[in-house]
Amino acid sequence: MPPETPSRDQDRFDDEDFPAYTMGRAAEMIGATPGFLRAVGEARLITPLRSEGGHRRYSRYQLRVAARARELVDQGTPIEAACRIVVLEDQLEDALRINEELRSRPAAGTEYL
C-alpha cells in the first residue's frame, strides 16, 4: 500500500503561518485581550489576515510574536517599545543564524585543498 499523501487540511494544520485562530481564541491562547491584539496590529508587529467576513485571523507564528510582546508589556514596557524590542530580537536571531551558516561554509578557494 503506498504511503498516504498529506491532505490539504493537514498541510494547513502544520503551517505556522496559516491564519487558523479568531481574535477571541487568539487572545485567550496568549492570555491577552482582543484590544491588546488590535494594539500590536496597529503597532505593525503583526498583521492578521482577514476572513471573507472581515474578521481578523491569526497564525501560530503571529501568536508567538504577540505573546512575547505581552510578556514585555506585563513587565512594564510600553506597548510600542515592546513591539520594537520583539522586532529587534527577531532581526538579531536571523542575523546570528545567517552568521553561523556563513561560518560553517568552507572559505572561498579552500574547497579543493
TrEMBL record:
This is MerR family transcriptional regulator. It comes from Streptomyces venezuelae. One of its GO terms (molecular function) is DNA binding. The lineage of its organism: Bacteria, Bacillati, Actinomycetota, Actinomycetes, Kitasatosporales. SUPFAM superfamilies: Putative DNA-binding domain. One of its GO terms (biological process) is regulation of DNA-templated transcription. Residues 20-88 form the HTH merR-type domain. InterPro entries: DNA-bd_dom_put_sf (IPR009061), MerR-type_HTH_dom (IPR000551).
